[in-house]
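worker-3 :: picked LisH domain-containing protein
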Amino acid sequence: MLSTVKAPGLPSFSLKTPVSNPIPLLHGEGGQLAFYVGTQGPSSNNPFSPQADAEPPALLVSSTRTSPSVEGISVSVAAAAMTVALAETRVSVDVIAAQLIRDHYILTALEFHTELLESGRELPRLRDYFSNPGNFERQTGTPQGDEVNTVIITGDRAGSISTLDSLDFARYSDDGNRESDERVAESDTQERNKNYSSHPETQEPIRPLEKRALNFLVNEYLLKNEYKLSAITFSDENDDQDFELWDDVGLNIPKPPDLLQIYRNCGSALPSPRNTVDVAVGVESGELTGNYITQKSDLLQQVSEREKNSGCDHVCPAATHNMEPVVHNKQSDCPSILTGMSILIPVHSHIFLSFLVHRKLSPAFQQALLSFCKMSADSRLGAEVSRIADNEESVMLMLGRCLPHIVPNVLLAKREELIPLILCTACLHPEPKERDQLLHILFNLIKRPDDEQRQMILTGCVAFARHVGPTRVEAELLPQCWEQINHKYPERRLLVAEACGALAPYLPKEIRSSLVLSMLQQMLAEDKADMVREAVVKSLAIIMGYIDDPDKYSQGFELMLLSLGDPSERVVSAIHQVFIPAFAAWTTELGNLQTTLIPSLLARIEKLLKQGEHGLDEHKLHMFLSALQSLIPPLFSVVIQNAPFTHRVNLQGDIPPIEVTRFPRPASPLQDIATIVGSRETLSALLILYDYQLEHEGTTGWDSLLWVVNQLLPQLIDIVGRINVASTTCVHEFSRFFWRLCRTFGKIFTNTKVKPQFQEILRLSEENVDALTGNGILTKATVPIYATGVLTCYNQDEDRKLLVGFLEDVMTTLSLSHAPLDSLKASFVELGANPVYHELLLTVLWYGVVHTSALVRCTAARMFELLVKGVNETLVAQRVVPALITLSSDPEISVRISTIPAFGTIMETVTQKELLERVKMQLASFLEDPQYQDQHSLHMEIIRTFGRVGPNAEPRFRDEFVLPHLHKLALGNNVQATESKRIDIATQLFEAYSALSCCCILHPTLTCVFLGVFVSVLAVGVVSAGRQLGLAFQQSDGLVPRPDTPIQLARW
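worker-3 :: tokens ->
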């Protein structure tokens, strides 16, 4: 099989060597086509048999002739020498396939794959590649049939549309879109321009990336030529594009020249951006006068004879083996070197010199001859390629020059791969200016780096800091952080915040406690992004872990308060998990934890209580108290590490493990006491000695613990006594604080130090309650905080009995002294939130049910209302309803009335029909029993309860029971002789209606009930209330006119 090659102006010629796989390479200049001709072994049909593999892979031949006057083409000695050099190494099939795919020789790879399949050798790489349709989504110009082995060379590249060189492989842009590479030559471009000029309707629509690129160039032109207003308008109309960054366009190419330069060059040929490879082209002997083809054996013989005659010993030995046929001149045995030969690799020139060194050519002739080698040393890239680095410093200089040009052309998603190269160059480059440029590239490598990319950059920054030392970190890295502290993208500011913390250990201590601290403080106060402030808090914590300037304590304390008041939960969580433990560790070293930090927070809480006599700022109270709670682990570590027994700690032998429930679960590893003291073994040994010391030896000489007992606890108990018991938030926060304090310091400490101080204050006697003013200690928040924060720390039988006894005593004392029940209610609400304590609370209430005093039974009945909402229906059916029915038959009418709110709550929350029927029957007995007809208090309580539970009750119960009985109560109120009672009932009915007016109620029922309500209102002369009622009725249904005047209301 002959592979025919044609070119305009040149005679066509063929290669006599069979061609199995011609591989197209790249287009050259002036319409030249460079390609690689594969040969087939003579003794095997399989091109990849061992015999075929032993053959030289190709003969590189080239032609750059552009004139028809060429007489002939001679042998490429350089190409032959390169071919011979490759003959010693056998290339594997997989390597060939990988190279074909990597260089986008798709058709050749496909033919290669087909021949392998026919020979029964399937290559996984090729199978996987051609089975993936995603690899061929945008390929065009698929060759047909025999074009695989035929290459047509013409002067006009537009004619090569259907040949191999017309393949258009899509390239990827930064945003992931693949754009055409527009692989056409100048003549093709000019031809298309002519066609588009004459047929404008054939123009393709502008593509999105083309539009963004043109927008960028137009905006640049407007700014350069002082069209500022136009530029502003243009920018506003394209607000989705950042005109400051060429990378925002999304094309994976360097920024093109400005519009003026493009306009000036529009008529001239633009150089192709592709690298070209020129190879030789073999011709038939009959087509070139005076030349013929010399086969391999003749050439080897001539080379051997020349070596013997000349005595040269420096010719490459590989040149004597496996040489391809080359062209010789008939009149001479010397290889002819013509000007048509193109040599692109520096080693080729050495091959030339090795053959020419014994020739009698003048230096001028040699220089002129070599000038025909196509080398490009005039451009920047050409200069870099021709100047090979010969030492480490040269390599660093070369990288410093090239990297700024490489980075913009790398995909954004893959730019982190450049981080090692950039950092290594920045570390070793001798020029400060170049290092600064490289670090600037590092911090601007990715426009909006994600978490993984930031981690890679930070890892590189730390490695750089370790390598170069504190001085260069201060001089080179910190300025990069400072430049981006106000960057418009939060991801870049986040990188700066994280870098400040990561570099803290490698900075000079003066810079760490001044410049870096100020940078972070500014970002904490000014940055609007939550994730940036969160990172700032964590970096500040790292700074606190390395700072050693005592004068910065006050600044650290203010930063803690500023962070605690941040509106973002992420920032507040970071302050508790990271900053406070680090700050507490520093204050512990300074000796300020017990003397300054904790007292400062307590002082702010007391000041807050004094200012909040008319309204407490619960948010600030939570802020300060949560900070105190985070300081409990550091405080306990100070106590045990400064105890009298520390010198007796022995880590040898078997140390029992710490119980899992010994300490509350830490919010972070930094709040784990084992981490603070050093290890779990050390903590275990200290705890054994701690418990023994408290139980047997006392606290004499133990200053750190005595401060907790004698100063901290009394001050906290005093603060608790001044809290409004009605504030469930404050009660909950202090309960949590005392619970964590007692669990951290242990059961012995709680029983011997904490409980006695509370019990001394909470003397359970009637003398300790002021019934007139309600200012007794039992009416304060001390009761619920002691019950829920101290007595619930441990859940053994004796602890539960103590809690039950305390609640029973409080209930009895408050009831007998006629004191407000707010403290008892707060205790039930806080404990009722945890199902573990439901049985315990029911036990306490049953104690009240069977109590001899009616006051205590009334209190127990009212407490059921609070407990029902959180108790499951089984307990309600088995424990609550029987107790309420018992109380509903109590001899005292006040006790029976006290059960009504609890029954109403059951109707509101329970879904069991049987249970609801029992409650309904009990309420019906209250309404229908003649003995209750004149019970004004009972009627008031029922109406109030119906108004509260009606909107949430079961609709059938509401329509068939609640509303009709409200109607009866309204009618009965009309004949009430006592005016004050009529007004009370009418007002209560109106409030009940206001609550029920939002419910979906059938009209007959609505009319029946509310007519009775109106009549009751009119009977007592509450005209204004009646007017509002009529307005609400009209708006809810629209059946009646709105009574605007008392007369209209009366007529209605």
